[in-house]
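PROTEIN DESIGN WORKSHEET
SECTION A - STRUCTURE
LENGTH: 171
TOKENS:
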């Protein structure tokens, strides 16, 4: 097998949109109904094989700095991929994504693979951000849109697989 490659992935998004849940769902197959604020910046790892190549993902969670809008360059420096997460029932969380996308593009340029993640699709009946609005926005910033539910484990594996493939294309 050819050499393995390691990618750093960061999650950005307002508190309570489901960032920690997405990571737990993907790396531990678990879901917690409670919001537990992550205390320290930390990462989880996941290994996968793609096109015969070993890919190690280092997936970084925030330490709750999003509350102070203080997720700075130290956090996303060297990121190969970024998940900009919002909650489809919360329009503010969608609008907040736009600021982070600008920041990321300014700091990392086109080196980072951007994913806009519409989470909590199991709460479709309370949706406040239409699919079309999200899709148009994602296209306008050259990002790809993903629809997920960390609660029901929907779209999560596909999201990370697709992101890994897109990051591999850049190396
Ligand atoms: P974070 O602050 O962005 O890390 O958000 P958390 O992962 O702590 O999740 C915040 C709350 O949303 C918790 O109560 C989770 O159980 C809940 N949650 C996360 N993802 C989903 C989802 O896909 N669907 C639903 N219904 N709830 C979710
Ligand atoms: Mg969290």
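SECTION B - SEQUENCE
RESIDUE ASSIGNMENT:
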């Amino acid at each position: 097998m050819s050499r393995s490659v390691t990618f750093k992935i960061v999650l950005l998004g307002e508190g309570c949109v489901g960032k920690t849940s997405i990571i737990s769902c993907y790396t531990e197959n678990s879901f917690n109904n409670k919001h537990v604020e992550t205390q320290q910046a930390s990462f989880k790892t996941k290994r996968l094989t793609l096109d015969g190549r070993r890919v190690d993902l280092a997936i970084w969670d925030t330490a709750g700095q999003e509350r102070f809008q203080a997720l700075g360059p130290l956090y996303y420096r060297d990121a190969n991929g970024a998940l900009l997460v919002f909650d489809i029932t919360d329009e503010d969380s969608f609008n907040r994504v736009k600021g982070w996308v600008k920041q990321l593009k300014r700091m990392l340029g086109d080196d980072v693979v951007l994913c806009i993640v519409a989470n909590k699709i199991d709460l479709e009946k309370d949706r406040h951000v239409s699919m079309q609005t999200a899709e148009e926005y994602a296209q306008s910033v050259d990002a790809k849109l993903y629809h997920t539910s960390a609660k029901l484990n929907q779209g999560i594996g596909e999201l990370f697989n697709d992101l890994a493939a897109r990051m591999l294309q850049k190396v």
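SECTION C - NOTES
The helical segments are 19-28, 73-76, 91-108, 131-140, 156-168.
The longest strand covers residues 2-12.
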